[in-house]
Amino acid sequence: MFGVGDIIWVPLMRVIGKRPVYLLAMLGLCMMNVWSSEARSYSELLAARICSGFPAAAADATVPAVVADMVPAKDRGHCMMIFHLALTSGLFVGPLINAYLIQGENWRWMCYFLAIAVGIVFVVAVFTIRETSDIKRHNSDPSRKRSHWEWMSLTLGFNRDASFLRAFLDILGNATYPPLIWCSLTISI
């Protein structure tokens, strides 16, 4: 689900905006981690972990899109390097933290820890993460400055002209491009 989640998140982000997608994904990830920590069988744990991949995938879509919205083209490579460095570092630091949690408590605390961390980030994001989609189509008076709470609106990024189905089909079409197929196969192997 982590690998295919962006097929849904990217078109949704183009239609309703990045902020609602980001918040929805974090809320879903928090709930999936709570479900994982409460699993009573291996099958239930496996289902919860598979389902948690779907909301976790949204980070792969939202962060590069926000960087593209907020950072000039000449500086994007630097910002994306920081994002990918943080993402990759988590693959090495996460297991170390999890080892201490599991050793000191039990495996369920790994999932509780993730749920707590995502929950805290969700609360912070509600008050700090603004919509970064193209605001020109929403702002009839460019001299007017938006207030903080106007930037926090969940409807600011809504694009009436966007089509979920069209964006979905565009992604599937792009996925047949030979260099993307090669990258996908290389990474998946």
TrEMBL record:
Listed Gene3D superfamilies: MFS general substrate transporter like domains
Membrane topology: Multi-pass membrane protein
InterPro entries the UniProt entry points to: MFS, MFS_dom, MFS_trans_sf
GO-annotated cellular components: plasma membrane
Superkingdom of origin: Eukaryota
Transmembrane segments: 20-36, 82-101, 107-129
Subcellular location: Membrane
Molecular function via GO: transmembrane transporter activity
Domain Major facilitator superfamily (MFS) profile residue range list: 1-189
Keywords: Membrane, Transmembrane, Transmembrane helix
Cross-referenced PANTHER family: MAJOR FACILITATOR SUPERFAMILY (PTHR23502), MAJOR FACILITATOR SUPERFAMILY (MFS) PROFILE DOMAIN-CONTAINING PROTEIN-RELATED (PTHR23502:SF160)
Name assigned to this protein: Major facilitator superfamily (MFS) profile domain-containing protein
